[in-house]
Amino acid sequence: MKIGILAIQGDYDAHAKMLERLGVPYAFVRTPADLAGLSGIILPGGESTTHLKVMTEEGLFEALKKFASNGGAFFGTCAGAILLAHEVHRPSQASLDLLDISVLRNGYGRQLASEVHSAPTKLRDEPFEMVFIRAPIIESVGNGVEVLAEDAGHPVLVRQGRILASTFHPELTGDTAVHEHFLKLARNGS
Length: 190
Ligand code: GLN
Known about the structure:
With about 190 residues, the protein is α/β, with parallel strands linked by helices. It has five helices and twelve strands. The protein has a seven-stranded mixed β-sheet. A three-stranded mixed β-sheet has the order 5-6-9. The longest helix is centred in the last third of the chain and has 12 residues, at about 175-190. The chain is globular and about 40 Å long. The site of glutamine has 11 residues, from α4.
């Protein structure tokens, strides 16, 4: 199994280090051709507007939608979660619409400093360390969406079929649990 990492801008390298740790082969994705042979793709944190602009210019927007309809798994962190959402607010912008959630960009304010919280998840008994950086707030989730973790009254880790999204950055901690969960989805489907 090989996993792609969208490598336009942002912290894609931290995801690569995570996959290296887990011994999973990966490829950086910058053009539609890079999607060949992948079981899943990670959409990293960064600036979702920049990702959207380059994705559209490179033909990746349509290619990623096709990748999803062919059964490819997705894991979006922060900006990546914004790209996966059904609806994006403040300001509203286009999205891949692969996950039935609505998000509010920079929902916790435009702070530069990160906030680290510890919250429980459905993935295991011990809490998970969650790094939030100019994170979106998930305002609502559709019926088919499973909330795997909440923090401060909002969903922060959600899954719908083979689509997983977090508003925090698990790639910035040493904890591989969320990535392992994604790899399971990529391997077995929902
Ligand atoms: N604030 C960014 C956006 O709206 C996301 C920040 C992040 O990915 N850490 O696109």
